[in-house]
Amino acid sequence: MTDSFAFAFCPYDGTRLAARPDADGVARPACPACGFIDYGNPKPCVAVLVEEGGRLLLGRRAVEPAKGLWDILGGFIDAGESAEEAAHREILEESGLRVTITRYLGTFPDTYGPRGLPVLNLGFVAVPVGGSLRSASDVAELRWFAAGELPQTWAFPHQPKLIEAWRGVGLV
């Protein structure tokens, strides 16, 4: 159990987990009582590049992790929610905007928070179609950035890769 995101105790019965090889021979934290295995699967998230007139809307984080840094809007996908539904919900919660998704950019693995929770970001591009711009939820400030003026420092390591994918579809 060397990964920082691994459970120490079974989430189902509270038994201390012990390293045990899985079906592929990989040692993973497992519950000797009920058989639960912690595979360390990533949590699904959305990352949405809201664009308008060649500019991108970014948010300055109001909370840790990465408080104060510029961030691509988005967040965790809720249970029972599609990635597209999460993208619409997250943008509305964080910016007050209603958007239409125009394209999918791909998947971007990363980690989140001090425990290194594995996440898988599904990257989208969207355009505003309504609402009133206002920072809310975990966003302290919103700002439109021209393509040539994007921040050099990002809240999370996957974000420059997402920007590269956005640039690669001929938008700038």
What report would you give on this structure?
The protein has 172 residues and is mainly β. It folds into two domains: 1-40, Ubiquitin Ligase Nedd4, Chain: W; 43-167, Nucleoside Triphosphate Pyrophosphohydrolase (Alpha-Beta Complex), CATH 3.90.79.10. It is built from two helices and eight strands. The protein has helices at 83-95, 159-167, and strands at residues 18-21, 27-30, 43-52, 55-61, 70-76, 97-112, 117-131, 139-146. The strands form two sheets. Strands 3, 4, 5, 6, 7 and 8 form a six-stranded mixed β-sheet that branches. The chain has a two-stranded antiparallel sheet with strand order 1-2. A hairpin with a 2-residue loop joins strand 3 (43-52) and strand 4. The protein is elongated. The model has no long low-confidence stretch (mean pLDDT 93).
Indicate the topology.
Elements: E1 18-21, E2 27-30, E3 43-52, E4 55-61, E5 70-76, H1 83-95, E6 97-112, E7 117-131, E8 139-146, H2 159-167
Parallel strand pairs: 3-7
Antiparallel strand pairs: 1-2, 3-4, 3-5, 4-5, 4-8, 6-7
Q: What is the strand content?
A: 35-45%
Number of helices: 2
Q: What's the SSE pattern?
A: EEEEEHEEEH
Determine the mean pLDDT: 93
Shape: elongated
Structural class by sheet pairing and helices = mainly beta
Rg calc: 19 Å
Separation, N- and C-terminal Cα atoms: 44 Å
- Low-pLDDT windows of residues: none
Largest sheet: 6 strands, mixed
Count of strand segments: 8
Helix content: 10-25%
Provide key terms for this protein:
two-stranded antiparallel ribbon, mainly beta, 2 helices, 13% helix, Nucleoside Triphosphate Pyrophosphohydrolase, 172 residues, 6-stranded mixed sheet
